[in-house]
Amino acid sequence: MTRVPTLLILAGDGIGPEVMAATEVVIEALRTKAGFHVTITHDLVGGASIDAHGVPVTDAVVEQAKRVDAILLGAVGGPKWDALPTDVRPEKGLLRLRKDLDVFANLRPAFVFPSLVGASSLKPDLVSGLDLLIVRELTSGVYFGEPRGIHTTPTGEKIAINTQSYTEGEIARVVDVAFDAARGRGKRLCVVDKANVMETGVLWREVAHRVHKNGHQDIDLSFMYADNCAMQLVRQPKQFDVIVTDNLFGDLLSDCAAMLTGSLGMLPSASLGAKTNDRQMALYEPVHGSAPDIAGQNKANPMATILSFSMALRYSFHRPDLADRVDHAVASTLADGYVTADLTLEVPPKAVLGTREMAKKIADAL
Ligand code: NAD
Q: Of 206, 233, 259, which residue constitutes the final position of a domain?
């Protein structure tokens, strides 16, 4: 008998518990309709954990997170905790989880649902059918490199320093994840860097060629400078399948690509770690925050979290069939004209649903 996979749910703050409850409706529907079993545990993160334990994430939760197959996180933060010192703020819980799990590869799909084509900032023909994935290195590069800081020079002038550095190992492991991701999609990987002006980019290219030769030659490998990539993402975004890039370029390019899809409430993400003995640390979360302005009003769009769970099905539970089924259920619900209040269709919607009602519609469509 195959082992039942394990999932730790950390709903967090604001709309986090609402979008998570909606996602659990879909998970329950997968159990009854497709016989999919997963052992779920719930715990606290962010402001909810501060209120209960005085810290944004407890050691026990971090240890539990290391043991499960996947973590699904809602969102953290809100005005209640805004005045706290930065080292005990809700966001620190999320940052600690990412760091302690060493989830170095951040996967952000940019997928345009046919009925939401009109919500994009680009012309419909440029984004219709868009389906690309950006893999961003998450735990190294200029956001972490040493030396860093703001100092005063002997002449009394201030100088600010950040360091971009990458080891071969740090590049190889994220490029390897990106090749694997490309294999489950269009089999094309584009490495994005600034090899024309930065040594780190030169090393990214060298290592990417090496990783390619070492078991990934079935994937088509190409390279592009980051400034050109920014332009191409708004000029002809459908040319890409999977992009892999460093922490800084990935931060910028993934936000740019995300907005092609039109709505924050639709964007899922996955952060993956190294594979050891067939296990891989994995944290799934919607891209949006805790949306305090609509929290507790049954208005939040749960689709980003439901689609994040779909990524867990694909990458952690090895059920691409069920991931496709969830993705199709979301697409068909939208195509039937059902939306949440944050979405605009080209045609008038059939109904604007609340969080709970949208979850039920998607579960019914499975
Ligand atoms: P936000 O993403 O929470 O909200 C931005 C806007 O988008 C708001 O108008 C909100 O109502 C709307 N929105 C967001 N998600 C939505 C959804 N699922 N359905 C419908 N509308 C949605 O960003 P913000 O307002 O800058 O931040 C609010 C809080 O969230 C802050 O405390 C911030 O620190 C935190 N935050 C957390 C995360 C995270 O947990 N990963 C990410 C970003 C912000």
A: 259
* Residue 187 falls in the annotated catalytic set: no
The yes-or-no answer on residue 176 being catalytic is no
147's tokens: 């030396």
Q: Which atom of ligand 1 is nearest to the CA of 342?
A: 20
292: helix, strand or coil? coil
Q: Does 258 sit in the ligand 1 pocket, CB within 6 Å?
A: no
Same domain, 250 and 138: yes
Is 17 near ligand 1, meaning CB less than 6 Å away? Answer: no
> Which of 92, 194, 299, 361 is the catalytic position?
194
* Residue 344 and residue 241 in one domain: no
Note the pLDDT of residue 298.
98
Can 251 be counted among the known catalytic residues?
A: yes
| Residue that the structure tokens 């961003």 belong to | 136
Q: State how many domains the chain has.
A: 2
- 289 Cβ closer than 6 Å to some ligand 1 atom: yes
80 plus 17 within the same structural domain = yes
The reply to whether 43 belongs to the active site is: no
CB neighbour list of residue 355: distance below 8 Å, 6 or more residues apart: 15, 18, 19, 21, 22, 298, 299, 300, 301, 302, 340
Query: Which structural domain, as residue segments, surrounds residue 143?
Result: 131-259
In a domain, 291, yes or no: yes
Kindly state whether residue 226 falls inside one of the protein's structural domains: yes
228, 259, 290 - which closes a domain: 259
User: Does 33 map to a domain?
Assistant: yes
Q: 77: Cβ below 6 Å to ligand 1? A: yes
pLDDT in the model for residue 186: 93
SS3 label, residue 272: strand
pLDDT tens digits, 71-85: 999 999 999 999 998
Return the structure tokens found at 297: 């009003």
What is the average per-residue pLDDT within 319-330? 95
Supply the mean pLDDT for the chain: 94
Confidence of residue 121 (pLDDT cuts 50, 70, 90): confident
